[in-house]
Amino acid sequence: MKVRNIVAALVVSLCASSAAAQQFQISHSAAAGNPKDTASLKFAELVKERTEGRITVDVGTSSQFGDDAESVTNIRLGTIAFSANAQGATSGAVPEIGLLGLPFLFQSLEQAEAVMDGPVGDKIAAAAEKQGIYILAWWNNGIRETSNSSKPILAPGDLAGMKIRTPPDPITIDIFEALGASPTPMAFSELYIALQQKVVDGQENPLINIYSSKLYEVQPYISRTNHKFESVPFLASKIVFDSLSPADQDIIRKAAVEAGQLNRQMVRQQSEELYGKLQEAGVTFNDVDPAPFVEATQPVYDKWRAQYPELVDELVSAAKQAAAK
């Protein structure tokens, strides 16, 4: 009788353990209120709700759980479960993802989203999986502009010799080298102080990042270069994700996509609204003639086509098809 009681107690204990709540973390580098942050909170809410509290996700705003590059490493090690990461940082482990930032490839967010949601996005996700990373969804961060503290940028020559902060992304570095600037890779969390102390002259980011992180306070000139698109790959650790039940994996995948729809909606809306808000804050905007910028950055395509000929051609073709729809 005692043996039966012990066995029964063990079974109850095992069942309780298997049903115990699991707590994970999601990292990102954006400030509170940024669409990346709002969507991350939505993801955590959906996962908790749909697992009836068995899985909870803590959101690490503003690099609380590590900057983007650190988070990519931690994702691969399995020490963090999720990250609404950055294209540039992820390209350190998955170079193919950087190709989404080829210069002047996309003219609209809708065009970029159509490409990411298609076969090209699937190929990049397959490359990421080989590195221990699942891309569960494609969020976005907008089209990138160039800001600086001294003057409007009207032509590539205006960038000559300027120290422009870039993410640690080889393609962004290549773009600004081709334009004659001196690209200076730096973590986003360090950027405001670097601009304030004039360690660098300028930077490039979507308006959403410029506004939410208040970079406009130390960068009164924004040139609408629209030089590249910035995806937000929603990453999951293969080690962590594979340890979950198929049912929980499905819940998490769907939550990532649904939260991504909120992210995309917010990015589109804010991309339109922020021009006015930034002008009210004292920013001077200027448009640029894209032709000389496009011409100056053609060598970037040549370089990356030499490394990934099929994928670059497929990406360019997909972008043209999406633009035509």
Automatic annotation (TrEMBL):
The keyword Ubl conjugation does not apply. Residues 1-21 form the signal peptide. Keywords: Signal, Transport. It is found in: Cell envelope. PANTHER family: PTHR33376, SIALIC ACID-BINDING PERIPLASMIC PROTEIN SIAP. NCBIfam families: dctP, TRAP_S1. This is TRAP transporter substrate-binding protein. The lineage of its organism: Bacteria, Pseudomonadati, Pseudomonadota, Alphaproteobacteria, Hyphomicrobiales.
